[in-house]
Amino acid sequence: MQTRRGARIVLLDQDDRILMIRHRYDGVIVVPGSPVREFFWVPPGGGLKEDEDFLQAARRELLEETGLTEVEWGPCLWTLDADVRWGGEPLHMHERYFLARAHGTQTITRAYLEPGEQEGIIDHRWWSLAELVAAETTETLRPVGLPELLADVLAAG
Predict the structure, then answer these.
(1) Domain map of the chain by residue range?
(2) What angle do CA 100, 84, 11 make, to 5 degrees?
(3) Class of domain 2-156
(4) Distance between alpha carbon 80 and the CA centroid of its chain, in Å?
(5) Model pTM greater than 0.85?
(6) What DSSP line would sit under 66-95, residue for residue?
(7) Looking at 25-29, 46-50, 87-91, 103-107, which range is the least confident one?
(8) Which helix (H) or strand (E) holds 63?
(9) How far apart are CA 132 and CA 2, in angstroms?
(10) How confident is the model at residue 76 (pLDDT cuts 50, 70, 90)?
């Protein structure tokens, strides 16, 4: 089974809201046992390129998906290992989630998206913890258990 290495960013604003990216489900990645809805929300991020480490990939992906560069980087918060089906084939995903803080008001742009991402990335939104908890029954949030994971991060300061 092949492994896909990825980096994601838990980007918090001054009000401790997390930035989430809304993707259109295109049938590529299926997490066994999870409901499949047309759209899902996930923190910004993506796969590592051949010459990158996880933090380099996180910085590149944040720029590509948001245009943001003025952030304060923190530690790796979580590591996710999951077996999924990608294009009908089994795949092991290994992702690292990095904490970052956005300062002030910055405009999010789609200008740096790669051509294939233009159709798949639908929207972005800043979510409070309470909004994530409320949305968990009606929206598909990734990673699984995100409200509880974020609550732990916020409680730790």
Answers:
(1) 2-156
(2) 10
(3) alpha beta
(4) 12
(5) yes
(6) H----EEEEEEEEEEEEEEEETTEEEEEEE
(7) 25-29
(8) helix 54-66
(9) 32
(10) very high
